[in-house]
Design brief:
The protein is an all-beta fold. Helices cover 0% and strands 48% of the residues. The strands form two sheets. Strands 1, 3, 4, 6, 9 and 11 form a six-stranded antiparallel β-sheet that branches. It has a five-stranded antiparallel β-sheet with strand order 2-5-10-7-8, with no helix packed on it. One of its GO terms (cellular component) is membrane.
Length: 149
Amino acid sequence: SVDCSFSRGICDWKQDADDDFDWNPADRDRGDGYYMAVPGFVGHKNDLGRLELLLPDLKPKSSYCLIFSYRLAGDRVGKLRVFLANQKPASVWEENKGKDEKWRTGKIEIFQGAETNNSVIFESERGKGKTGEIAVDNVILISGLCPED
């Protein structure tokens, strides 16, 4: 498995230069590292911010499971989408509101055909709200199918 947490880990993260704003590090409440977030006051409605995880070493004709923590906190804060680089323009995962401010877990199956995915893109789309944040942390990639809860 590959641990792509933002406080540690060996993963190569890249901000998209052609989007409307950047994701920024935010400190965890308990002081144990940080996560990446887009605060509710950044940008305007429908602006996009993309954070790309480069995955150069995935084997063709294999399955992987991407597991990550996410949070959508605040009224009408926006949407969080996940894209696989070779399957754009359709997102493979999307969430547009949090029931509360808690962290949740997202899981995505990645099937590598002859055309391999070399990156995963986390895209934040700003909503109307001006408070809260869209956040991602603890991104882990494991070989094989996603485990059942």
